[in-house]
Amino acid sequence: MSAHVGRATWASLSLLVLVLLVVAVGTDHLSPPAEQPPGPPPPDAPRGWVVAASAANVRREHSVDGTVLGLARCGEPAEIVDTWVSPMGTRWSRIVVGPSGLTGWVLWSLLSHPAPGRAAAVCPTPPPDAGRTAAGEEG
Question: Is the pLDDT of residue 130 over 60?
Fold first, then answer.
């Protein structure tokens, strides 16, 4: 009988430890930390970021479900004013886009910061027939 009591106690204790671990890990994601308003970038922050994708949706929130405020085109300068990393590891940057002043969140992977003396972004070129209509005329 004592063997059954020992097994039951051990099983209960193991289950309790697992439950405590799940609760401890699970609470990290229950309430995200309060988002701080972006401040000025630190003095040593790299400057000269540009949009490196053909276009990037600039969003109100750092989420792919966030409202799109506008579009930043390839090669446009972008000043990073804040960054955020999701619990899944996706990195977002809050940017101010070149001359338009459009401000919002974009995926960090859509930006480029070249090394000194190198080109800022390699923008994809449209296919040769992208500007032609069905009749073969310029559109």
Answer: no
Quote the pLDDT of residue 75.
86
Q: Per-residue pLDDT for 52 more than 60?
A: yes
Chain length of the chain:
139
Residue type, 50: V
CB 92 within 8 A of CB 108: yes
What does the DSSP assignment read for 31-74? SPPPPPPP-PPPTTS---EEE-SSEEEEESSSSTTSPEEEEEET
String of DSSP letters for 104-121: EEEEGGGEE-PPTTS-S-
Contact in structure between 56 and 72 (CB atoms under 8 Å): yes
Q: From the CB of residue 5, how many other CB atoms can be counted at a distance below 10 Å?
A: 9
The three-class DSSP label of residue 99 is coil
Are the C-beta atoms of residues 43 and 100 closer than 8 Å to each other? no
pLDDT in tens, 65-117: 999 999 999 888 999 999 999 888 999 999 999 888 999 999 999 998 866 66
Integer Cα distance of 99 and 34 in angstroms = 31
